[in-house]
């Protein structure tokens, strides 16, 4: 879990240019696998994601979830043009960072 939390914080710092607080919960009341909002708080739901998800380390699934959640920095509406644009910008920025070994 620590590896994923640290990666999420690095990603937010480099892609969103902001500090992010990472928290974990294990409750069926928390909607979805994770949540993020413009307050800068990222919450992973261990109950929904499962232990194996964290034990596999940084995978495509982790990066995909973080792109999705960090898109909410710009819009809470999954169907909005702002959210779509944010996902595209985040993905492009991740590519450039990875290409230059900066992530």
Structure report:
With 103 residues, the protein is α+β, with helices and mostly antiparallel strands. The protein has one domain: Zincin-like (2-Layer Sandwich), CATH 3.30.2010. It contains five helices and three strands. It has helices at 2-16, 46-49, 51-55, 60-70, 81-99, and strands spanning 21-25, 34-36, 41-45. Strands 1-3-2 form a three-stranded mixed beta sheet. It starts with a helix and ends with a helix. The model has no long low-confidence stretch (mean pLDDT 95).
Write the layout of secondary structure elements.
Elements lengths: L1 H15 L4 E5 L8 E3 L4 E5 H4 L1 H5 L4 H11 L10 H19 L4
Parallel strand pairs: 1-3
Antiparallel strand pairs: 2-3
Helix pairs in contact: 1-5
């Amino acid at each position: 879990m620590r590896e994923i939390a640290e990666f999420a914080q690095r990603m937010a710092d480099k892609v969103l240019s902001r500090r992010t607080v990472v928290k974990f919960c294990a409750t069926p009341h928390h909607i979805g696998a994770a949540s993020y909002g413009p307050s800068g708080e990222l919450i992973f739901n261990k109950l929904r994601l499962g232990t194996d998800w964290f034990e596999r380390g940084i995978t495509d699934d982790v990066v995909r979830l973080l792109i999705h959640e960090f898109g909410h920095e710009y819009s809470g509406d999954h169907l909005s043009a702002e959210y779509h644009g944010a996902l595209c910008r985040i993905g492009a920025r991740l590519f450039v960072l990875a290409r230059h070994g900066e992530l």
